[in-house]
Amino acid sequence: MNWVERATELRQWSRSGVRAPHKPLLLLYALGRFRRDAEGELVYSAVEEDLKRLLAEYGPPRPTTPAYPFHHLVGDGVWEVRSDRGSGSPGTGVRELRATNATGRLAPELRTALRREPALLGRMVRALLDANFPPSLHSDLCEAVGLGPEPAEAEPLPSSRGQQRDRRMREKVLTAYEHRCAFCGYDGRIGSVSVGLEAAHVRWWAFDGPDDVDNGLCLCSLHHKLFDKGVLGVGESHRILVSQRFVGHGAAARAQVTELSGRPLIGPQPGAAPVAAPHRAWHLAQVFQGDPRPARADSSTG
Question: Where is the composition biased (Low complexity) (predicted)?
């Protein structure tokens, strides 16, 4: 059984790049629990709040429930559910899962494979992360599911898209934006080397985002993380959007986040392609959290 391949091929609802990472998040959470307690079971009523938080933080910006993956992951051969009614899930209803004391855990064959080959867990984690989330979120997500730092044995795997990443993407994007963060203008260097600047995909690679300049932004590490978490977005006329859900009362939070609302992006330089409208639209629909804050009155210039 190729468990890594099975992890990357979880059946997920999909249409036009819509994100539905419910099953990958549950499987990552289960792998984290297995690492700490190989014999333990996940009682739905006990882990429901943990799973809700994961979906709220790393899932799409639309209402959802952890009952869906808890029930449906069984069909992928990596998960089993039992309840007071016996083997098998009682259904997708939250009340049913709670009332019947439904419990889930990794499938017996997978548990056996993980005990026999401890490095398999790291490879499965890497596969799930690469197939569903951008690299900027990997470490935080591993911490959130109880895996600690991203497993050291989890080396990058070949792309499931059947094509290689363009290693020149970072340099092309940083050059297009003249080595400045498109949100705040940060342009730090050590000697001739930029530090703290990254090439962010607008439409994530895992969801068919190309390694092209018109799908990239040069961002500092902070704004890259906030962009991938849906705090920041890019709207019409390439102006910065800030989610109303973001809360930050200090001066730094205001200066580095909320006061960006409505400002135009910095760059790209003349002759370089700006972010393409389809990629902006995907990010706004699948990543950006909630409604944008009103633009500041003095945000007409950068």
Answer: 148-158
Cβ atoms of 107 and 79 within 8 Å: the answer is: yes
pLDDT at 160 over 60: no
Query: Looking at the chain, how many residues does it have?
Result: 302
Please tell me the distance from the alpha carbon of residue 187 to that of residue 189, in angstroms, as a whole number: 7
**Residues paired with residue 199 on neighbouring β-strands, in sequence order:** 218
The whole-number pLDDT of residue 223 equals: 98
pTM: 0.83
Per the CB < 8 A criterion, the answer to whether 97 and 42 are in contact is: no
The pLDDT of residue 15: 58
3-state secondary structure the chain: CCHHHHHHCCCCCCCCCCCCCHHHHHHHHHHHHHHHCCCCCEEHHHHHHHHHHHHHHHCCCCCCCCHHHHHHHHHHCCEEEEECCEECCCCCCHHHHHHCCCEEEECHHHHHHHHHCCHHHHHHHHHHHHHHCCHHHHHHHHHHCCCCCCCCCCCCCCCCCCCCCCCCHHHHHHHHCCCCCCCCCCCCEECCEECCEEEEECCCHHHCCCCCHHHEEEEEHHHHHHHHCCCEEECHHHEEEEECCCCCCCHHHHHHCHHHCCCECCCCCCCCCCCCHHHHHHHHHHCCCCCECCCCCCCCCC
Instruction: Decide if pLDDT at 34 tops 70.
Output: yes
